[in-house]
Design a protein that fits this description.
Bound molecules: guanosine-5'-triphosphate, magnesium ion
Strand content: 15-25%
Number of strands: 12
Radius of gyration: 31 Å
Oligomer: single chain
Structural class: alpha/beta
Order of helices and strands: HHEEHEEEHEHHHHHEHEEHEHEHHEHHHH
Number of helices: 18
Length: 500
């Protein structure tokens, strides 16, 4: 009996081997894996076959407004609204001027751009109607489309369709939202880098190599009785090292990525009258905070944003810190200053050079170091003694930035602020993770990779190694969107604006 039981098993194993070889050949073609992802994604997404419409420009009065219409009924709808010529018969990527009519009623004179399936942003038949920018007129055009079978698009649905049709992967789609939200040169460059493929292409290639190993190991399970080893363990180990090195550098880039996306909070801390509010005003180039020679002028914290060389800094002017104050409001302000100091990404410790001794400054410096606070020591009011004498006074304390806030002499400080944030990592052409979703998936991937590595070292059975590799594939696929579910996609795209 055992003999008989083994025969069909070996036959099916041989069959699986043939299928496996075929799959290996196919995975060389990225078109295959794209269309596979596309098919899987489409079947999970409801409502994708409907034609959608939305205003793509901001609501309100403007010179022009653009309406987007995407889906299989787009041209049938346009042929009813734009009657001077049949747009369905015009070539893709052409512009047409004419009237939009709802029955006999003329709504607007417009320019229509047409893009035919699959050569469009969404990968479907897509029409963009540029009308006059009256919210009333534009709404009438949208209503006319709705009457003829389109439905209103959900936030991000055009980009979601671009993803579902394999035009973009998930990181590229998310970068589209980042580009729209970008407000500095660096955030714009980082988003553009990711739209062009960024690190997701690299992750996809590594994932494909890992899939091949995973398939080989799973095949070994079918031949467990023959005790064969299809997956070369040394090569697998090398691949795990490659994936982990990319993963680690991407994880490390998130600190900078977070700065690019959310900015850096900077608390300006110091004793009363050090010149903190004067410094805030000098950096902002406006009289934002009240300045006076009365110690304790600033009672509450004041926050303002400035852009220095493409990085957003959230400057926080605080109440001067003195330890013995009988004023209740001032002492609450001091508490807040201490809290802001703890929460800040960077502390600018500002002192009046005439009120500070090198000994006291060294003690303060020691405290920052002990608390592992990122700080800059800034000497203010160098105009009084003169720069040379001031530098001479503090020559034993290293790394002081000398400024005169009142003379707006702060270039040196601005330079140091960007340097301390970027730490020389300003090449936004290199991969930078700016998205918290990617960061969390990368952290999980890193931990799964450690398990594979340990499993290989300990020579654990193939089925357990296969399980750990599958976890790695899951996290890699979550980043690029090759592994997704509808809820996750809806969540990601719901953060987009309508019409994108
Ligand atoms: N000579 C000189 N005076 C300055 C300079 N910066 C600030 N001051 C003066 O120092 C005094 C205190 O300045 P503020 O900016 O109000 O000081 P502050 O640190 O905000 O003080 P509090 O809000 O009370 O904690 C004012 O009279 C400023 O004009 C500087 O660079 N040189
Ligand atoms: Mg002040």
């Amino acid at each position: 009996m055992p003999q008989e039981a083994k025969a069909p098993r070996t036959l099916s194993s041989t069959l699986r081997l043939c299928v496996f070889v075929a799959i290996l050949k196919c995975t060389h073609s990225s078109r295959f894996s794209l269309s596979l992802a596309w098919m899987t994604a489409l079947t999970k997404f409801s409502g994708w076959e409907e034609t959608i419409v939305a205003l793509a420009t901001p609501p309100g009065i403007s010179a022009i407004g653009v309406i987007r219409l995407s889906g299989s009924k787009s041209f049938a709808i346009m042929d009813q609204l734009f009657t001077s010529k049949k747009l369905s018969e015009q070539p893709s990527h052409t512009l047409h001027v004419g009237f939009i009519k709802d029955g006999e009623a003329v709504i607007d004179e417009v320019v229509v751009s047409i893009y035919k399936d699959p050569r469009s942003y969404t990968g479907e038949d897509l029409v963009e109607i540029s009308g006059h920018g009256s919210p009333y007129v534009l709404q009438q055009i949208i209503n006319a489309c709705l009457k003829r079978g389109a439905r209103l698009a959900k936030p991000g649905e055009f980009t979601q369709r671009a993803f579902l049709h394999g035009k973009l992967d998930l990181t590229q789609a998310e970068a589209v939202a980042d580009l729209i939200a970008s407000n500095t040169d660096i955030s714009q460059r980082a988003a553009l880098h990711n739209i062009r493929g960024g690190f997701s292409q690299q992750l996809k290639e590594l994932r494909e190599r890992l899939i091949r190993f995973s398939a080989l190991i799973e095949l070994e399970l079918d031949f467990s009785q023959e005790n064969v080893e299809f997956a070369d363990r040394k090569q697998l180990h090398e691949l795990i090292e490659d994936v982990d090195s990319v993963t680690t550098s991407l994880i490390n880039s998130f600190q900078l990525g977070n700065v690019i996306r959310n900015g850096v909070s900077v608390a300006i801390i110091g004793k009363p009258n050090a010149g903190k509010s004067t410094l805030l005003n000098a950096l902002l180039n406006e009289e934002r905070a009240i300045v006076s020679d009365i110690p304790g002028t600033t009672r509450d914290t004041i926050e303002e944003i400035i852009n220095i060389d493409g990085i957003l800094f959230r400057l926080i002017d605080t109440a001067g810190i003195r330890h013995h104050t009988t004023d209740v409001i001032e002492s609450v302000g001091v508490q807040r200053s201490l809290e802001k100091m703890k929460q800040a990404d960077l502390v600018v410790y500002l002192f009046d050079v005439n009120e500070m001794t090198p000994g006291e400054l060294s003690t303060i410096k020691g405290e920052f170091k002990a608390q592992q606070t990122k700080y800059l020591l800034v000497a203010n009011k160098i105009d009084i003694l003169g720069e040379d004498s001031t530098r001479n006074k503090f020559k034993e304390v290293l790394d002081i930035i000398f400024i005169s806030a009142i003379q707006q002499n702060t270039e040196n400080l601005k330079q140091q602020m960007t340097d301390v944030v970027l730490e020389g990592k300003v090449q936004t052409e290199s991969a930078i993770v700016t998205n918290a979703r990617h960061f969390h998936a990368l952290q999980q991937l890193h931990s799964a990779l450690q398990d594979v590595r340990k499993g290989l070292q300990d020579n654990i059975p193939s089925d357990l190694v296969a399980l750990d590799i599958r976890r790695c594939l899951q996290y890699l696929g979550e980043i690029t969107g090759e592994v997704t579910n509808e809820d996750q996609l809806d969540y990601i795209f719901s953060k987009f604006c309508i019409g994108k």
